[in-house]
Design brief:
This protein has 8 helices and 11 strands. By secondary structure, the chain is an alpha+beta fold.
Length: 257
């Protein structure tokens, strides 16, 4: 569990992205319900033909909200999105829309050697009020190379950097899957069968750089704050500029609870 994200935060700041300066205020209470992962740790091998007991190349992780889900989001649905990591790949890129009591299973595959890292999972809800009531979780990761050809990155100081929260395109894709009416609205702006791809690629191009800004807890104390930024405040140097995913999709207005 990412305990640092449970602390109630109150802050105000202005962040400049592209040509847009955005003022955001935070006053978030701890979530009511958190994601739970099973297992809570994985030992993997980058070698596809892994034969070392306890170190498969891929393994499954089942994730869902804890027993307080009903208190947090009632009958509405949510989508689980894995965080980004250079040590493992995760498939699929997000869960189906889930109700309380439901879980989803991801396949996690080792891609780079690490003596110890984490993989985050976050829950994306249909609106900001509910988003603040649900929290994510992390599992621990160890990845080895049984071929003997890979160097120990902890000794050579060449370990890839795990980057935590889902990137803006992943959050946007989950919101399209979760928020009532958003996908239909986006389709009126981005025509054709590839409308979703156009939306996601536009968000990817507008995401603030460096990408690690999403994990800056002085700017985004909680996951909900980062998701809100992607929805409403993601600036763009494109012409014309837009304000977040909702601005991109014709000024979409989020449904009330």
């Amino acid at each position: 569990m990412r305990f640092a994200r449970l602390v109630a935060a109150s802050a105000a700041f202005t962040i400049a992205v592209g040509l847009t300066a955005v003022a955001i205020s935070f006053a978030d209470a701890p979530p009511d319900s958190f994601l739970v992962a099973n297992p809570t740790s994985l030992q993997l091998d980058v070698n596809p033909l892994a034969a070392t007991p306890g170190f498969p190349h891929s393994a499954q992780v089942t994730v869902g909200l804890d027993a307080n889900c009903q208190n947090a989001i009632n009958a509405t649905k949510y989508t689980i999105v894995p965080g980004t990591s250079s040590f493992v790949s995760v498939s699929p890129s997000m869960s189906n829309a889930l109700a309380c009591g439901q879980t989803f299973t991801f396949t996690v595959t080792g891609t780079a050697v690490t003596a110890g890292s984490t993989l985050a999972f976050d829950a994306v809800a249909k609106n900001q009020g509910l988003q603040k009531k649900i929290g994510g979780t992390s599992i621990s990761i160890v990845v080895i190379d049984t071929t003997g050809t890979g160097s120990d990155c902890t000794q050579t100081n060449t370990c890839p950097v795990a980057t935590g929260r889902p990137a803006a395109p992943a959050v946007a894709n989950a919101l399209l899957n979760t928020v009532d009416g958003l996908a239909a609205k986006c389709q009126t702006v981005f025509k054709g069968k590839d409308w979703r791809g156009k939306v996601i690629s536009t968000i990817a191009g507008a995401m603030p750089k460096p990408e690690s800004i999403k994990d800056n807890t002085s700017l985004f104390p909680t996951d909900a704050d980062w998701f809100l930024f992607v929805k409403n405040s993601l600036g763009s140097t494109a012409s014309p500029a837009f304000n977040g995913l909702y601005g991109l999709c014709g000024g979409f207005v989020e449904p009330t609870i």
